[in-house]
Amino acid sequence: MGTILNRVLEQTGDPEILDKLLSLPKADLNSLLLELFERHTGLCTPADILKAYRSNRFSVAGDADPLTVHTLETLLLTEAQKMDIRTILLSPSAPLGSCSVFGCVDQYNVISSLRGTEMLSDPSNMLAIIIADKLKSRAAANITPLHYAATARVVRAQAFSGEGFFAHFGLFCMVSSGKDTGSYSSEKELLEKHLFFYRALLREQFRARLSIVLRKRSGYKDGDGFFGKMTEAVQTMFPDTPLSFDYDDIDNKYYQGINFKIYMETGKEKIEIGDGGFVDWMYQMLGSKKERCLISGIGLDRLLLFGE
Asked: Is residue 227 located within the same domain as residue 152?
C-alpha cells in the first residue's frame, strides 16, 4: 500500500492531503466521502458494474448450497439455546475499527465503508461490544457469566487461497463474559462452557470426536501457573479427549494466557474447524481488571466441507 499511496499523493500534488482530511470533524469527512462516491458511481455504467462483479472476489457468490448453510446455522443456534447461550442476530456492518482498535487485525484486512462503519469481519468482536454495552448500561450483569452466540456471513480482505478458504464465509461465534473471583475459577467456568458445547456438537450431530490443541500465550503475570491450571482443568473435564500442546509464538498478542484449536476427527481424518481463547477486550472497553472474556468460533464452510 505504501507504493500506491505515494503515487496517489504525488498525483494530487499535495503530500499533506491525508493529514488535512484527518483534521476534519468525522461528520464532515463522512460527508466529503459520500459526495466522492456519489460522483464516482455517477460515472459508472451497468456494463462497468458487471465487470466489477466479475473481477471483485468480495462480491462473487459462494459455492455452498444456501439451504445447507442455513440449516447448519439453525442447528448451531438451536444447540446453543439448549445450553442457555443467548443467540443474537447481528447486523452485516460494524462500527469502524471494531477489530483493529482492539489490536486484533490491521485495518487493511477489513473492508472499511462509509458512515463510520465497516463490513462485519468477526462476529466475536461485535458480540463482545454488545455485552460491554449491556454491562455499561447495567442492562445485564456478569456476576453469573453471560454467554452469547451468533452466526454471520463475514468478509475479510486477506488474500487466502486453497481448499476451505474463501473471501467471504460463514462463522459461528461464542463470547462469554464473567467476573474474576480468584484462583482462575471464572476462566475455568468459561472454558468449560465453550469446550463442552463443541464436544457435544461434534459427537451428537456429526458423529465425530473433538480434539484440542492448547497454545500458551502471554498476558497473565503468572503465565506458567495460569497455563498449568487451564491444562489441568481441560484434562479433568475431558479425560478421553485427545489433547496436545503448542508453546510456539507465545508472545502473540491476540489471545491472553491461552488459546485453543478445535479439531474434528472422523475416522482417520483430522481437520481444524475453529479456535478460541481469552481476550482483554472487556477490560479495554470497561476499564475493570476484574473482567474476563472468552471467545471462540468455528467456520461453517469448513464444517460443511469436511463434515459431509
From this structure: yes
Alpha-carbon span 187 to 292, nearest angstrom: 7
Q: How far apart are CA 11 and CA 20, in angstroms?
A: 16
Q: Give yes or no for a contact between 109 and 46, defined as CB atoms under 8 angstroms apart.
A: no
Note whether 39 and 148 are same-domain residues: no
**17-61: pLDDT as tens digits:** 999 999 999 899 989 999 999 999 999 999 999 999 888 888 888
Split into its structural domains, the chain has a count of: 2
Nearest to 190 by CA among 174, 173, 203, 208: 174
Report the SS3 class of residue 61. coil
Q: Are residues 16 and 102 in the same domain?
A: no
- Domain shared by 153 and 213, yes or no: yes
CA distance 46 to 52: 10
Which class for 185: exposed (0-12), middle (13-18), buried (19 or more C-beta within 10 A)?
A: middle
In a domain, 100, yes or no: yes
Q: What predicted TM-score, i.e. pTM, was given to this entire model?
A: 0.90
Pairing mode, strands 93-95 and 86-87: unpaired
Domain that holds residue 27: 2-43
Same domain, 122 and 166: yes
Task: Tell me how far apart the alpha carbons of residues 113 and 157 are, in angstroms, rounded to a whole number.
Answer: 13
pLDDT per position as a tens digit, 225-281: 999 999 999 999 999 999 999 988 788 889 999 999 999 988 778 899 999 999 999
| CATH number where 86 lies | 3.30.930.10
